[in-house]
Specification:
The structure holds two protein chains of two kinds. Chain A is about 0% helix and about 50% strand. Chain A starts with a strand and ends with a strand. Chain A is globular. Chain A has no helices and twelve strands. Chain B is mainly beta. Chain B is about 0% helix and about 50% strand. In chain B, the strands form two sheets. In chain B, strands 2, 4, 5, 6, 9, 10 and 11 form a seven-stranded mixed beta sheet that branches. In chain B, strands 1-3-8-7 form a four-stranded antiparallel beta sheet, with no helix packed on it. In chain B, a hairpin with a 2-residue loop joins strand 5 (about 45-50) and strand 6 (about 55). Chain B is globular and about 40 Å long. The relative contact order of chain B is 0.34. Classes of the chains: A mainly beta, B mainly beta.
Chain lengths: ~120, ~110
């Protein structure tokens, strides 16, 4: 069965510093996708970044980058130059089998607080 | 503007009543999903639909029902059989060539 594990319930970071949010995954599939979503206090899930299992380079989107280590089954999110608006819950997710409609399997989330 | 709308944002119901949550998208996406989120937890899949007039159970479908009569709409009914209906419900959609799912703003349901 596929599983996502986020072991950091909460993290603090100083404004303008970089922070890494951890994510490990478990799957027996060779083809899979990994996602990070941000959930501010309003509740909406905001897509941040995607990494395919066959992508050789780590994904980057602006201040977000995904540190993909396939052998370790980890997909950590790195946020550079943290801003106060980055304070939110962050969820790592994996795309389930296409036979199950491409559903997303989520971790428990990490609450990030950015200090001024 | 293209997007997903969910209404209402907050919903209150008495125990034993069925309630229907609305989800509408104008992104022309084929696939739509319903997730449930409990406090301090990640999202869990309730139902999904990949095409009009077809839908499949997700991981926690018991006590819920859906319909997909139009491409744009995927309403979720929380029935009285759902033992713990109080939760935050999120609807999402995905285009055929997209990997990511786009989410609506969510509906917070409270049943007392």
């Amino acid at each position: 069965a596929q599983k996502i594990t986020q072991t950091q319930p909460g993290m603090f970071v100083q404004e303008k510093e970089a922070v890494t949010l951890d994510c490990t995954y478990d799957t027996s599939d060779q083809s899979y996708g990994l996602f990070w979503y941000k959930q501010p206090s309003s509740g909406e899930m905001i897509f941040l970044i995607y990494q395919g299992s066959y992508d050789e380079q780590n994904a980057t989107e602006g201040r977000y980058s995904l540190n993909f280590q396939k052998a370790r089954k980890s997909a950590n999110l790195v946020i550079s130059a943290s801003q106060l608006g980055d304070s939110a819950m962050y969820f790592c997710a994996m795309r389930g089998p296409w036979g199950q409609g491409g559903k997303l399997i989520f971790g428990q989330g990490t609450e990030l607080s950015v200090k001024p | 503007d293209g997007g997903i709308t969910q209404s209402p944002k907050y919903l209150f119901r008495k125990e034993g009543q069925n309630v229907t949550l609305s989800c509408e998208q104008n992104l022309n996406h084929d696939a739509m999903y319903w997730y449930r989120q409990d406090p301090g937890q990640g999202l869990r899949l309730i139902y999904y639909s990949q095409i009009v007039n077809d839908f499949q159970k997700g991981d926690i479908a018991e006590g819920y029902s859906v319909s997909r009569e139009k491409k744009e709409s995927f309403p979720l009914t929380v029935t009285s059989a759902q033992k713990n209906p109080t939760a935050f419900y999120l609807c999402a959609s995905r285009g055929g060539l997209d990997y990511e799912q786009y989410f609506g703003p969510g509906t917070r349901l409270t049943v007392t």
